[in-house]
Write a structure and sequence with these properties.
The protein is α+β, with helices and mostly antiparallel strands. It has 12 helices and 12 strands.
């Protein structure tokens, strides 16, 4: 079941992938097509089992209405035979039927709450036809390897709760009371939260990215968000530190990161490159947090889109 197993972002590439995605896709959606009024991510977050890992929210309905989903995912018909078989059996095609989802990845385990138009009877029959099993409302099947078990359950809200986990009954954890979050979900169609324990530069990362990760060592968490403002987009990066003194120190160290970004942009000779845009950021300490802000015109951001 391709669509289930491939949900999530590899830890080694998450910073590069989501930086570009949030910069470009959120800009295209929020600014080009006007104010965003979509799914409240807090309702989906409340249905995740307890935990603290990489968390991603995507309002697919808003992306679909803007046309950005088709631009990023490509047109239907280019997928594998396995995925086309899944669509034929279940009637579910994510470009058309997925409205929003929140995903948490932690220690190789993924938890997903999705708001979608699903025929649960067809999904259940698909799992059984693939050698899976269903007990009451919970269904599970083995993925590509034995330790990758895919399980799902229909939540009381009507949403889908799915787990990709060594435990074939992991989806039973949906419904457990979650702990209060130490951060507030942004009001945007795309955002990414990362706990400090997962902060790591991918192998072969450019010098400026490795330096940025190093300067954020010791942070409790970081959170990207984007909001329209004036004739462009204001991007924000919040970094929660362990104290006000640490926040002041980290804000000062970010000057070296911005300098490395400017050097990378000069080497590329492209003022619309990602390093060039990020080099225009401004950082300041606010209590126990460091806040980075970018004000970027839409025309420059649009060139980052694939």
């Amino acid at each position: 079941m391709v669509s289930c197993e491939t949900v999530g972002i590899p830890r080694k590439s998450l910073i590069v992938a989501f930086t570009g995605f949030v910069l470009a896709a959120a800009a295209f959606l929020i600014w080009r097509y006007g104010p965003w009024q979509g799914t409240d991510a807090r309702a989906l977050l409340a249905e995740l089992p307890p935990g603290d890992g990489l968390t991603v929210f995507v309002d697919a309905r808003a992306l679909r209405q803007s046309g950005i989903l088709q631009r990023l995912a490509g047109e239907a018909g280019a997928e594998s035979d396995e995925y086309r078989g899944f669509v034929a059996a279940t009637g579910f095609e994510y470009r058309r039927d997925l409205d929003a989802f929140v995903l948490r990845s932690e220690n190789g385990r993924r938890w997903i709450v999705a708001e979608a138009r699903l025929d649960y009877g067809k999904l259940r029959r698909y799992f059984l036809a693939q050698g899976g099993r269903c007990v009451s409302e919970l269904c599970s099947m083995q993925g590509s390897v034995p330790e990758r078990q895919i399980s799902w359950v229909r939540l009381k809200s009507g949403r889908l709760g799915m787990a990709v986990n060594p435990d074939p009954l992991a989806a039973a954890a949906f419904g457990e009371k979650s702990s209060p979050l130490s951060w507030a979900a942004p009001g945007a169609p795309l955002w990414v939260y990362l706990p400090g324990k997962m902060l790591e530069a991918p192998d072969g990362a450019p010098a400026w990215l490795s330096l940025a990760v190093e300067e954020m060592r010791g942070a409790r968490w970081l959170l990207w968000s984007a909001l329209p403002e004036g004739n462009g987009l204001r991007l924000s990066l919040e970094i929660q530190c362990t104290g006000a003194d640490k926040a002041q120190q980290m804000a000062g160290r970010w000057e070296s990161v911005l300098r490395a970004l400017r050097e990378a942009a000069q080497q590329q000779g492209d003022e619309t490159s990602l390093p060039a845009l990020l080099a225009e950021g401004r950082f300041e300490a606010s209590g126990e947090r460091v806040v980075g802000r970018w004000q970027i015109e839409w025309g420059r951001l649009e060139k980052l889109l694939p």
